[in-house]
Design brief:
The protein is of the alpha+beta class. Helix content is 28%, strand content 30%. It contains four helices and five strands, in the order E-H-E-E-H-E-E-H-H. It comes from Nocardia mexicana.
Length: 154
């Protein structure tokens, strides 16, 4: 979740076809101020848990990645009501190492899309409390700069 891509054309978003309005988030996008900075609002949300997944810390990064791990549970939020424009912002924001894919969530009949991490992780779980206390303010500044650069490139 570090702002890996830029671009504005509709052709750049083939993986967004058919995603709907919901997104499971488990890291920095759980924080209202981050969403406000990136898409200008905090969408409606519901709490959710993914079975056999964990929210892993990533080497040298403030944000996490969702990875498969049997026997574990990964908590997060389902954002609801995302517009196409908001999806495009989020998709641009995500690093290329994230792959958008539907996952099953406990208590939900239909899979919900999420960004799954495809590169190396470290052994530790990502801790949202530590992120909030030690990194959130700096991350928000970084998000604002990223958003400004994205707007300038359009």
């Amino acid at each position: 979740m570090s702002g890996g891509r830029n671009g504005a054309t509709a052709e750049r978003y083939p993986r967004l076809e058919g995603v709907g309005k919901r997104l499971f988030v488990y890291g920095t996008l759980q924080f209202g101020p981050v969403l406000e900075e990136l898409i200008g609002r905090t969408p409606d949300y519901d709490f959710a848990v993914a079975r056999d997944r964990r929210v892993a810390a990533l080497p040298g990064r403030m944000y996490p990645g969702l990875v498969a791990q049997p026997g574990r549970m990964a908590g997060g939020l389902i954002l609801d009501g995302l517009t196409r424009a908001e999806w495009e912002v989020v998709d641009d924001f995500e690093d290329d190492e994230y792959q958008l894919q539907p996952i099953s969530l406990i208590g939900h009949d239909k899979p919900v899309p999420t960004y799954v991490w495809t590169a190396d992780v470290i052994r530790n779980d990502w801790q949202p409390e530590i992120f909030a206390a030690d990194h959130l303010d700096r991350y928000l500044d970084w998000c604002a700069r990223w958003r400004g650069g994205r707007a300038a490139s359009r």
